[in-house]
Amino acid sequence: MQSESDFHVLLTNDDGHEAPGIRTMRSVLQRQGYRVSTVAPSREKS
After folding, report:
1. Cα-based distances in Å from 36 to 20, 24, 46
2. What is the pLDDT of residues 3-15, one digit of tens each?
3. Residue 1 CB contacts under 8 Å (≥ 6 apart), including other chains
4. CA neighbours within 13 Å on the CB side: how many for 5?
5. Which of 6, 24, 30, 46 would be 14's cystine partner, CB 3.0–4.6 Å?
6. What are the backbone angles phi and psi of residue 4, rounded to the nearest 5°?
7. How many whole angstroms separate alpha carbon 34 and alpha carbon 21?
């Protein structure tokens, strides 16, 4: 059986890597044991 740490989650958006939504999602996933990478612009682009 696979555990959360076996999964690598890629988060992306167009609002920047410090946007509240992506920061919250990254934090929640990491607390649950997922490996998380974020790909986003340095600032909002939408």
Report:
1. 16, 12, 23
2. 877 899 999 999 9
3. none
4. 1
5. 46
6. -55, -35
7. 17
Structure letter (DSSP) for residue 6: G
* CB-CB contact of 16 with 44 (8 Å): yes
Which residues does residue 36 pair with via DSSP β-bridges, in sequence order? Answer: 9
Which secondary structure element, helix H or strand E, spans residue 37, and what is its range? strand 35-39
Task: Measure Cα distances from 17 to 9, 13, 32 in Å.
Answer: 15, 8, 20
Q: Which two tokens stand for residue 7?
A: 């999964």
pTM comes to 0.81
